[in-house]
Design goal:
- It is built from 3 helices and 12 strands, in the order αββββββαββββββα.
- The chain has 250 residues and is mainly beta.
- It is globular and about 60 Å long.
- The two termini are 31 Å apart.
Length: 250
């Protein structure tokens, strides 16, 4: 795990960010590294069909759009979030795919994120996630993987793992609300797992608090690299990146 004392080095490299983790899961220290790459982006615009052309318009707070979106990734493998992934070679793509499949990661999505200011907490409970609040920011997506690493490439992945408790709780609190690409978004994520009624007796419970510093990337680069699972209209080709005021030379 990186420590906040290494922040100057991280900023100089500009390839990943910082996570300080505390807490436990299943009665022991939480063994996962979620700080090799930490990134965020703000999804303020969407595409709409207007006069036979696609226009970029601001996302409205009304359903089903629910306003500006904040995406936060805490990832246990290293890559450069500022890369335009169209220009990656086969080795880079293979390492990237292997990382998502084998290493731990946590991805969070907040809607109405324009109202999420420094010092304001937003909470999520999977038991009541279907109840969308009438106003204010809310966590609309939580995805977590603890990974399946191998010690050596010749070894098999574990055939069985102890299940995690199925109820998820998340609290996000920002220390700043930086939107500018190239800047750094800072805050804290508290991630909890609790047993639900139908969970097995050995399901792992626990909580983890993550103090993070996330590199902010541009919205168009993020749309190109990751798409937007919440809004199919935002799944746009990347060909306009070079003419969108954000040159992305190979």
């Amino acid at each position: 795990m990186k420590r906040l004392g290494l922040l100057a080095v991280v900023l100089a490299l500009a390839t990943s960010s910082c996570v300080r983790a505390t807490g436990s899961m299943g009665g022991g220290p939480f063994p996962m590294n979620l700080g090799d790459t930490v990134l965020a982006w703000w999804n303020k615009y969407r595409f709409e069909q207007q006069d036979k052309t696609l226009k970029r318009v601001e996302r409205k707070n009304d359903p089903p759009i629910y306003g500006e979106v904040l995406h936060l990734f805490l990832v246990g493998f290293r890559y450069n979030p500022s890369d335009d992934q169209r220009y990656w070679n086969a080795v880079q793509r293979d390492e990237y795919e292997k990382g998502w499949n084998t290493q731990p990661w946590l991805r969070l999505t907040v809607h109405r994120a324009g109202d999420l200011k420094a010092g304001k907490k937003v909470e999520y409970d999977s038991a009541s996630a279907a109840n969308i609040p009438s106003e204010g920011p809310f966590i609309s997506g939580v995805a977590f993987s603890r990974g399946r690493p191998r010690v050596h490439s010749s070894e098999e992945y574990p055939k069985e793992t102890t299940p995690l408790a199925s109820r998820e709780k998340v609290t996000i609190e920002l220390d700043n609300d930086t939107h500018s690409p190239g800047g750094f978004l800072m805050g804290t994520v508290k991630y909890e797992r609790e047993k639900a009624d139908n969970d097995p007796d050995d399901a792992v419970e626990g909580e983890l608090e993550l103090a993070f510093t996330a590199q902010v990337i541009s919205e168009r680069l993020a749309e190109c690299n990751y798409g937007n699972a919440e809004d199919d209209d935002d799944l746009q080709p990347c060909s306009d990146l070079e003419s969108d005021g954000e040159p992305m030379a190979p």
